[in-house]
């Protein structure tokens, strides 16, 4: 098998890369439904160690369900789902426990010695060294997301799941968070799955961008260019992704200036 | 022309103490001039003197101690039962089925209506009084804590689960802290209900305690003693409320204050 991804309809992939030895996420013919509706429909997915994957999709396309499965929040008995035990999630709303100080949130569920030191190191790494003892409700949106990132990274996960983590922060904070996530990914090198609504964000950060539609992966786009990238670098890929997201007439970022952003 | 608000007279007019002080003064004047007879309501000065004598003779401290022990014992039992039942009902499906329905049914009983039954069961000693207080305060704690547990944000539970917390970890780190504000509200209600039941239970039959003092004073038309006991009841309620506030201040320090005091 030469590709990381098998399309149910046999659509060939344009790029073939050398296959890494063993994917750390492996889903085969994975389905999930509530009642009559099938949210995920015979989905195949591989993620290689250290790979940065972005998942795009309209509301209701099954993104959240897929993420919950990868996070181990839903039972998967009977399905062929291989996910590393070492994984961590950053949610859109930081979901810090408001009754625990920031460092205790980061240390939540940690085992072993030096829990406090490890939590503090992670917070220093995301630039929150000055808010160790703050109450979470006193943090700004960006700070809360940094704390959530620290809480995920302190576990040294093999798989880092990001569930629209930048959707609720302002544009400037989002740009800083992009740089931070890339820096953390470069130094820790977990596999990342970023769920997002933002095509430009996906193209800025990911090695591979997937479009989820109707419970299946409808399109895949590889982004090979060097990082750091700029918005508009991948205008062809952007047009194709938007097309698969049902935003056919959108002008590409390259045509209309690099600051133009599109949200699905 | 009115001098701007700094003046002595205008700050006096704004003082919240002004009208209560005037009321007490009017009461004193009324009593001294004979408009209010002593067997209707004793003068404030007489009340203060009586309070002093009762404190010195040890009569009041002893009665207060007896009543406080009743409240403490009843609350101890009631609050513990309420917490245990709420945990049972809130944290497990079978527990909810088994506990919630009967508790909700018993809750509709007016607690004081049970006193004849409790006297038949427990006699006229301390037991029925403590049992009534325990019974009445239990529901306040149960209802609020159970409601708090049911209202825990599932997104926080999901997040904690994704970080590997097991069932015990979830209860300790997420569910109980999230329900703590509700528990404290329940505790406040329980305390005021406990004082209320104490008053009634003590007056039904007692040979010691504040209620006994009041009953005796009624027989001798000693309104000064009655007023002293009323003041002590009020002080008891205030003290209990202050204690809960102190606990809340420490336990809920994480909550942002909408109004800075």
Written description of the protein model:
The complex is a heterodimer of chains A (264) and B (261). Chain A is an alpha/beta fold and 264 residues long. Chain A has helices spanning 63-70, 102-106, 115-125, 141-153, 171-188, 199-205, 235-244, 253-256, and strands at 25-34, 37-47, 52-57, 80-82, 87-90, 159-163, 191-196, 208-213, 216-222. Chain A contains eight helices and nine strands. In chain A, helix 3 packs across helix 4 (141-153) and helix 4 (141-153) runs parallel beside helix 5 (171-188). Chain B contains eleven helices and no strands. The model of chain B has no long low-confidence stretch (mean pLDDT 89). At the A-B interface, strand 5 of A face helix 8 and helix 9 of B.
Question: What labels describe this entry?
Answer:
heterodimer; A: 264 residues; 6-stranded mixed sheet; 3-stranded antiparallel sheet; 8 helices; disordered N terminus; B: 261 residues; mainly alpha; MetI-like fold; 0% strand; flat
Radius of gyration of chain A: 18 Å
What number is the mean pLDDT of chain B?
Answer: 89
Low-confidence residue ranges of chain A:
1-12, 252-262
The CATH homologous superfamily of chain B is named MetI-like
Q: Strand portion of chain A, in percent? A: 15-25%
What's the total helix number of chain B? Answer: 11
**What overall form of chain B do the CA principal axes indicate?**
flat
Q: Mean pLDDT of chain A, as a whole number?
A: 83
Give the largest interface. Answer: A-B, 21 and 20 residues
Element-level helix/strand string of chain B:
HHHHHHHHHHH
H/E series of chain A, N to C?
EEEHEEHHHEHEHEEHH
Q: Measure the end-to-end span of chain A.
A: 33 Å
User: For this structure, what is the CATH class of chain B?
Assistant: Mainly Alpha
Ranges of chain B with pLDDT <50 over ≥5 residues?
none
Determine the strand fraction of chain B and express it as a percent band: under 5%
């Amino acid at each position: 098998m030469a590709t990381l991804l098998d399309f149910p309809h046999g659509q060939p992939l344009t790029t073939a890369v050398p296959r890494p030895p063993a994917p750390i996420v492996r889903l085969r013919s994975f389905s999930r439904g509530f009642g009559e509706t099938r949210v995920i429909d015979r989905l195949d997915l591989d993620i290689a160690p250290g790979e940065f994957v972005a998942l795009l999709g309209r509301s209701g396309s099954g993104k959240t369900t897929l993420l919950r499965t990868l996070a181990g929040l839903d039972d998967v008995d009977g399905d062929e789902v291989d996910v590393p035990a070492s994984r961590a999630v950053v949610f859109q709303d930081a979901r810090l426990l408001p009754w625990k100080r920031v460092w205790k949130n980061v240390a939540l569920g940690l085992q072993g010695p030096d829990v406090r030191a490890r939590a503090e190191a992670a917070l220093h790494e995301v630039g929150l060294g000055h808010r160790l003892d703050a109450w979470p409700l006193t943090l700004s949106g960006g700070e809360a997301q940094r704390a959530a990132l620290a809480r995920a990274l302190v576990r040294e996960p093999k798989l880092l799941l990001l569930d629209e983590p930048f959707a609720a922060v302002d544009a400037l904070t989002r740009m800083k968070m992009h740089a931070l996530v890339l820096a953390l990914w470069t130094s820790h090198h977990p596999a990342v799955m970023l769920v997002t609504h933002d095509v430009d964000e996906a193209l800025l950060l990911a090695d591979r961008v997937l479009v989820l539609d109707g419970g299946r992966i409808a399109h895949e786009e590889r982004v090979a260019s060097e990082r750091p990238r700029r918005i508009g670098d991948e205008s062809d890929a952007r047009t194709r992704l938007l097309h698969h997201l049902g935003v056919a007439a959108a002008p590409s970022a390259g045509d209309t200036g690099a600051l133009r952003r599109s949200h699905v | 022309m009115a001098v701007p608000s700094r003046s002595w007279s205008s700050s006096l007019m704004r003082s919240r103490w002004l009208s209560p002080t005037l009321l007490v003064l009017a009461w004193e004047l009324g009593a001294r001039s004979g408009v209010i007879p002593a067997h209707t309501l004793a003068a404030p000065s007489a009340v203060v003197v009586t309070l002093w004598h009762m404190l010195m003779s040890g009569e009041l401290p002893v009665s207060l101690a007896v009543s406080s022990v009743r409240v403490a014992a009843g609350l101890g039992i009631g609050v513990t039962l309420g917490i245990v039942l709420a945990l049972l009902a809130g944290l497990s499906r079978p527990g909810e089925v088994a506990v919630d329905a009967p508790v909700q049914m018993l809750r509709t009983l007016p607690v004081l209506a049970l006193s004849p039954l409790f006297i038949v069961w427990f006699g006229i000693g301390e037991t029925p009084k403590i049992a009534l207080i325990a019974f009445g305060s239990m529901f306040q704690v149960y209802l609020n804590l159970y409601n708090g547990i049911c209202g825990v944000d599932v997104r926080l539970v999901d997040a904690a689960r994704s970080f590997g917390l097991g069932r015990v970890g979830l209860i300790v780190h997420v569910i109980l802290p999230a329900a703590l504000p509700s528990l404290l509200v329940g505790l406040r209600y329980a305390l005021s209900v406990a004082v209320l039941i104490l008053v009634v239970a003590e007056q039904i039959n007692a040979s010691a305690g504040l209620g006994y003092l009041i009953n005796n004073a009624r027989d001798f038309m000693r309104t000064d003693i009655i007023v002293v006991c009323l003041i002590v009841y009020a002080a008891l309620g205030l003290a209990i409320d202050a204690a809960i506030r102190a606990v809340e201040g420490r336990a809920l320090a994480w909550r942002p204050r909408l109004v800075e005091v």
